[in-house]
Amino acid sequence: MPTVKAKPLTWQEVSNLLVTDADAFTALRYLRHRESVPALLDLEAKGDDVLPGIEGSLCDLYHALWSPDPSVRDEVRPDRKYWRELLGQTLKTSVYGELHAETQLSELKSVLGTIATGESVLAMIPKKDREKLKELGEAQAEADKLDGEAEAAKAEAEAAGELAEAAAKSAGKPGQTGGAPQSGMSPEAAKGIANQLAEQAATAKAKADATRADADAVKTKAESLADALMGKPGSKEAEEKLRELARIGLQAARDAKAKVEEVSSTIEAWGLEEGELHRESIPEALGLLERMKRNQHLKKFAALLGRIRKIAARKARAKVSGQGVRVAIPETGRDLRRAERSELVAITHPALRAKAFRRWTQGELRLRGEKTEQKLGHGPVIVCEDGSGSMEGAKQQWAKAVTLSLAHYAKLQRRSFGWILFDYGVRQSKTYPQGRLSAGEMLELAESRAGGGTNFEQPLRKAVEMIQKEGLKKADICFITDGECAVSDQFPREFRAAKKALEFNVIAVLCDVGSSADKTVREFSDRIEKASAFTADEAEQKIFSHF
Predict the structure, then answer these.
(1) Assign residue 46 a region: left if phi > 0, alpha if psi is -120 to 50, beta otherwise?
(2) Which site among 132, 431, 483, 510 is 20 to 30 Å from 523 CA-CA?
(3) Who wins on pLDDT, 454 or 119?
């Protein structure tokens, strides 16, 4: 829930504060995020006394990061000149260019970049500038108020003038019989009313002129305050101010780039795709990524996961290219990264934008999609992961990395994925159709622990049950353990019968065990591999070489 309640903000109110060429489509996207991302509202609250018009500034930042080709306006109000120059200087830096390459058309990274840049800018605006900006903001608000009053007074004066003119004409025209005016009044009475209306019109005009003069005076004051803050164009003070703003913008861009790169590294290391994160709300996605990044245990694990995941992806794509065919299929949705080129053109075309925006809001944009038509024999992948206490440490990290990488492998090949965590019993089990794990599910799997003794029979029986109930025939089971334990006399016979009926295979991976510790696994495994180095290369040689 937002820590600060969002005050209603319309597109028109935002557009009055913008210094960029953001259109209604982009601004409305930002306003949608503003309602759901607490950090944006917190920034507005912090920035209200630091950078007046912060609501528009954050929308400008979002546009500068999300839109493919943003630019700043040539003419802005006096109170927005400071922000226009700061943002304009930022957009000229190479750091911004590198940041923009990461964030454009990415909802998550653009919002994150907006928050990071906004925080840095607010922290670096000098105190002397804050005081002047506040005074300038108050002057601009007064100028806007008087400008509105002047326009209203002008409209009132024009209406009074038109009424007086009509009355004067009516007073001077005879009726149909050539007698009294058409109004039916005597000429003297009609003339008196016309004169009265003329006086009222003159008074209204004088009031309108005075109000306009007051508004212009306050506008002039605002412009003078802006010049005092920014320096006269061409002066040494102006050049120094631009250099100061450029330094602020450069550092803010660096800070944002570091934050976005951290997130990108986390996403890559965990084998995530942004589309998977879009299933969560942006605050939830950012929260998950923060947990992934901050947990020291997971930080070490993520580096190993990243290396093994690349191996899994390479193997999966090699299998697809050699034994399957990718076929384009029509899809609809909101994911602009997969939008058809014609839809992207429509979004940027003034005449087509409204209809394209409607399709986007309804989740009906045409997207690029594909599926893999595979030959028979490509079955689901099931991992039985030993979570007993003896697995703690490098063995457990490696087993988790292998498990998540096999899930990634299954997803790329559109295979179902099953996971069973066991110690002396089955502690957790779940199936994921087509290997689709959300970011939250990946984190849950990585953080899961058991900690007891070891039992082989229960997880293997659970795997058979999973195959039968979920329809996972022709599955490949990867059984990862560091222990040895006995099974009942009837189990090997029953298990072999199930293997034959359900056509599945078992690869047993023994972690850091001696040569004599494989007696039991030989009774139920088709292949046995032994791992001791717990590296990505070993995962490739011992596990992925069989897939």
Answers:
(1) alpha
(2) 431
(3) 119
The beta strands (E) that lie in 364-425 are given as 365-374, 381-386, 417-422
**In sequence order, what E strands does 227-322 have?**
none
Q: What is the rounded distance in angstroms from the CA atom of residue 180 to the CA atom of residue 174?
A: 6
Q: What pLDDT sits at residue 242? A: 94
Cα four-point dihedral sign 308, 313, 316, 322: negative
Strand (E) or helix (H) holding 479 = strand 476-481
Q: Output the CA–CA distances (angstroms, integers) from residue 233 to 25, 125, 131, 238, 240, in the order listed.
A: 34, 21, 21, 6, 11
Whole-number Å distance between alpha carbons of 233 and 237:
9
513-528 pLDDT per residue, tens = 765 567 888 889 999 9
- For residues 397 and 301, the answer to whether their CB atoms sit within 8 Å is yes
Closest by Cα among 469, 545, 534, 450 to 507: 545
Pull the structure tokens for residue 446.
Answer: 């990585």
The domain defined by 381-546 folds into Rossmann fold (3.40.50)
Residues 374, 372: Cα–Cα separation, whole Å: 6
Q: Where are the alpha helices (DSSP H) in 172-235?
A: 187-230
Instruction: Dump pLDDT digits (tens) for 252-304.
Output: 999 999 999 988 888 877 767 776 676 677 888 888 888 877 766 666 677 77
Q: Is the dihedral of CA 231, 237, 243, 247 positive or negative?
A: negative
Q: What is the pTM of this model?
A: 0.69
The 3-class SS string of 220-273 reads HHHHHHHHHHHCCCCCHHHHHHHHHHHHHHHHHHHHHHHHHHHHHHHHHHCCCC
For residue 329, pLDDT beyond 70: no
Amino acid 230: pLDDT: 92
Reduced to 3 states, what is the DSSP secondary structure of residue 145?
helix
Q: Which residue has the tokens 């689901």?
A: 380
| The one-letter amino acid at 316 | A
In 3D, which of 118, 120, 116, 111 has the Cα closest to residue 37?
111
SS (H, E, C) 483-527: CCCCCCCCHHHHHHHHHHHHCCEEEEEEECCCCCCCCCHHHCCCE
Q: Between β-strands 417-422 and 426-432, what pairing exists: parallel, antiparallel or unpaired?
A: antiparallel
Kindly report the backbone phi and psi dihedral angles of residue 36, in degrees, each rounded to the nearest multiple of 5, phi listed first: -115, -15
User: For the chain, how many helices (H) and strands (E)?
Assistant: 20, 8
Check whether 499 has a pLDDT greater than 60: yes
Q: Comparing C-alpha atoms, which of 376, 403, 374, 372 is closest to residue 387?
A: 403
Cβ atoms within 10 Å, residue 325: 12
